[in-house]
Write a structure and sequence with these properties.
The complex is a heterodimer of chains A (113) and B (113). By secondary structure, chain A is mostly beta strands. In chain A, strands 2, 4, 5, 6, 9, 10 and 11 form a seven-stranded mixed sheet that branches. Chain A has a four-stranded antiparallel sheet with strand order 1-3-8-7, with no helix packed on it. The termini of chain A are far apart. Chain B is mainly beta and 113 residues long. Chain B is 0% helix and 53% strand. Chain B has no helices and eleven strands. Chain B is globular and about 45 Å long. The chains are: A mainly beta (113), B mainly beta (113). The interface between A and B is medium-sized, with 28 and 25 residues.
Chain lengths: 113, 113
């Protein structure tokens, strides 16, 4: 069973730029969620995708958007980057028959200067 | 408004002793609870979970207790091992909907040999 992978591992952007983060879900998992973890905080839910459609969203502005592809890989896009967007971005996947348990990737650390 | 609270930022325990990590929640809609372990530079690793219909779930050295009336759960690790040293996150979800996880801020456990 393959794990959840994310790319890139680290990224540096400047304020106002756009960024795309990628996630490859665990084999057989067809629900993917994205979380933002700021320093010293727990992960915070951004949104979830199921069957390529958004299936729930946390308290994040529309400049945070996502895509899920037929092979269950996923992207997180953030437009008009702000300094406060600097964080660890985590992707998690789960089986639709057991959505309660989510399995996380290693994350992408984004620094906005 | 923090719906999941881990009030102890850190905990030190001697190897072989019991580690008890605590978590409180405020949202009555939460009906599924999870504990994750996180090492530096890695994503959270699922440890153990409990449904609100139970008050105890055990998996090897790890036991989670749920007290619904007090809106409190705890994770017991017996016996503690140096490899258990990590940050532990408590998370909760309300099954109706997108199964988004709400996390606490984490407790850093140090097991001293």
């Amino acid at each position: 069973e393959t794990g959840v992978t994310q790319s890139p591992t680290h990224l540096i952007k400047t304020r106002g730029q756009q960024v795309t983060l990628r996630c490859s879900s665990q084999s057989g998992h067809n629900t993917v969620s994205w979380y933002q973890q700021a320093l010293g905080q727990g992960p915070q839910f951004i949104f979830q995708y199921y069957r390529e459609e958004e299936n729930g969203r946390g308290n994040f502005p529309p400049r945070f958007s996502g895509l899920q592809f037929p092979n269950y890989s996923s992207e997180l896009n953030v437009n008009a980057l702000e300094l406060d967007d600097s964080a660890l971005y985590l992707c998690a996947s789960s089986l639709v028959t057991n959505q309660e348990t989510q399995y996380f990737g290693p994350g992408t650390r984004l620094l906005v200067l | 408004d923090q719906q999941v609270k881990q009030n102890s930022p850190s905990l030190s325990v001697q190897e072989g002793r019991i580690s008890i990590l605590n978590c409180d929640y405020t949202n009555s809609m939460f009906d599924y609870f999870l504990w994750y372990k996180k090492y530096p530079a890695e994503g959270p690793t699922f440890l153990i979970s409990i449904s609100s219909i139970k008050d105890k779930n055990e998996d090897g050295r790890f036991t989670v207790f749920l007290n619904k009336s007090a809106k409190h759960l705890s994770l017991h690790i017996v016996p503690s091992q140096p490899g258990d040293s990590a940050v532990y996150f408590c998370a909760a979800s309300a099954r109706a909907g997108s199964y988004q996880l709400t996390f606490g801020k984490g407790t850093k456990l140090s097991v001293i040999p």
